[in-house]
Amino acid sequence: MEFKYDVLVIGAGHAGCEAAAAAANLGSRTCLITMDMNKIGQMSCNPAIGGIAKGQIVREIDALGGYMGLVTDRTAIQFRMLNRSKGPAMWSPRAQCDRGKFIWAWREILENTPNLHIWQDTVKELLIEKGEVIGVKTLWDITFHARCVILTAGTFLNGLLHVGRSQLPGGRMAEPASYHLTESITRHGIVMGRMKTGTPVRIDGRSVHYEDMEKQEGESDFHSFSYLSEKRKLKQLCCWTCFTNPEVHRILHDGLPESPLYNGQIQSIGPRYCPSIETKIVTFPDKEQHQLFLEPEGESTQEFYLNGFSSSLPLNIQIEALKKVPAFRDLVIYRPGYAIEYDYFDPTQLKHTLESKVVRNLFFAGQINGTTGYEEAGGQGLIAGINAHINCHGGEPFTLGRDEAYIGVLIDDLVTKGVDEPYRMFTSRAEYRILLRQDDADMRLTERSYQLGLADSTRYQRLQQKREDIHKIIDYCRKFSIKASYINDALEGLGTTPLRRGCKLIDLIDRPEINIQNIAPHIPAFQEMLNQIQERKEETIEAAEIKIKYRGYIEREQLIAEKMMRLENIRIKGKFDYASLNSLSTEARQKLIKIEPETLAQASRIPGVSPSDINVLLVLLGR
Q1: Are 307 and 402 members of one domain?
Q2: How many whole angstroms separate alpha carbon 195 and alpha carbon 279?
Q3: Beta bridge partners of 355
């Protein structure tokens, strides 16, 4: 039997699933190779999707025709919109999911995707000829040939688990690590490093005293992750919160000599923004408590995830410390928290398409690029899958700008700046976050995806209808004049200042106390117009209202982005011999040689390249 494909995807985590689905849906004959078909789309750590900035990425994946949003909505057991107290640029959706149902939802999608085959095996070697990947060889000595290969191996490459002084090879608890593949990659000049991450204990919910915790309810309004999803179907559950205390901290502190993080056992760098509980007590010694979140793993299981208590301390210390929390005084656990070290590859050796600069047609996506998080992995996988298909069948490379998507910010940061710790997306990393809101990801990206052939006609038609409905609402509000005598009673009832004279409806909606939903019942003609919206009415009204209330900020940021695009359009790759440019600083020369930026704008974002260095390049270009 001959195994020949256009695209091979190695690893069926969040990056691999999106990559395989994208390549196959675009028409490439695709094979997804995974060590375990029962762990496709496994949520290795918290069974939750989204969060601050991460939720925006999932909305972007969905807008582009990916599946993470659909799978999340289908398996959600709690949904919340975070940061509601801030402006809409900061709103971020988050959902707790049923871990088991999430896997099977992904598997159902992949097994029914045309052009996509799944093979259960472990890849041990890349096959490379004349600087170009031509396939892989597996542990069963089966050779797969392909025009493109996408590596999405997560934490499995030379993975090593730590609980106290005990060490065990593995990619996840009870799952084998992958060996030999790293060596097969690095022998071709691709640079690797080691990183560390961790996960908390899993708790038997029957042993918890919920009366000593605070309940955290979810939300049941119209918000979701996918622009195509219907309402959530699974039973909606609550999460619970409590706090550590000084006695917990004392036990943890006494156990630090046994911690792999502090006894020299772990040398690699862990995520700064998701630290272990032992790191928290060392970094913040004066803090008497840290918040913990008890989160359900599924609709019907008793297994709970303890967010905020990631640890690799010995099992007895983890349990002894947790039993000093009143809610956990009778604690029973399913398995301890642990740390894991794994191989990653320097992302500055990648193009913005996520293709290697060193080996042609070889793509890297997900945690092996030095990122952390399911959402970051899924976004990278989607872009890698699209571009692998393009490499096979022709077309312009598909990339996203920093003003187009958080996925664009993520990939530009990786390939331009590199990583010295696991990279996590935050809203603060995006300079155009007013343009990159979660509500308008479809407006930004679906048309591009439709033109590419990934987003289907149903999705595109819904976008066109939504765009038309938003325009109608804004246009109506801009043109509709309202008299003070007609509306003042309603305004007083809504807690806002009455009008002295008439105004346009759009000026009323600008007021913080007023929104479209609470003013429309007092203006029958406006309400009737809103009632004519057939699909996703609440989502459409919210999108229109954001455009009205924040139009000044949006327009100003759009102008800034357009100015920056002038530098993005100045291509410099291949135009300079940086080593000979003595007018540049030494650091700038070294960084420019290493990164080989495509544009002047990318060069300006490289750490160590100063504004004066950019001016030198501009002068030389002028000559």
Answers
A1: no
A2: 16
A3: 363
What's the order of all strands across the beta sheet hosting 333-335?
214-216, 239-243, 291-296, 303-307, 202-204, 333-335
Return the structure tokens found at 106.
């992904």
- The alpha carbon dihedral of 455, 458, 460, 466 has a sign of negative
Q: Tell me which residue range forms the domain holding 477.
A: 457-556
**How many structural domains does the chain have?**
4
Q: Is residue 563 part of a domain?
A: no
Q: How confident is the model at residue 623 (pLDDT cuts 50, 70, 90)?
A: low
pLDDT per position as a tens digit, 279-333: 999 999 999 999 999 999 999 999 999 999 999 999 999 999 999 999 999 999 9
Residue 162 lies inside a defined structural domain of this protein: yes
Helix/strand/coil percent split, the chain, to 5: 40, 20, 40
Residue 100 shares a structural domain with residue 22? yes
Q: How far is CA 407 from the centre of its chain?
A: 8
8 Å CB contact between 154 and 376: no
CA distances for 485 relative to 129, 234, 490, 491, 501, angstroms: 80, 48, 10, 11, 8
Q: Token pair 């004279």 is at which residue?
A: 501
**CA–CA distance, 342 with 195 (Å, rounded to integer):** 6
Asked if residue 123 lies in contact with residue 181, where contact means CB atoms within 8 angstroms, the answer is: yes
Q: How far apart are CA 352 and CA 355, in angstroms?
A: 7
Which pLDDT tens digit goes with each residue over 420-431?
Answer: 999 999 998 999
Q: What is the pTM of this model?
A: 0.95
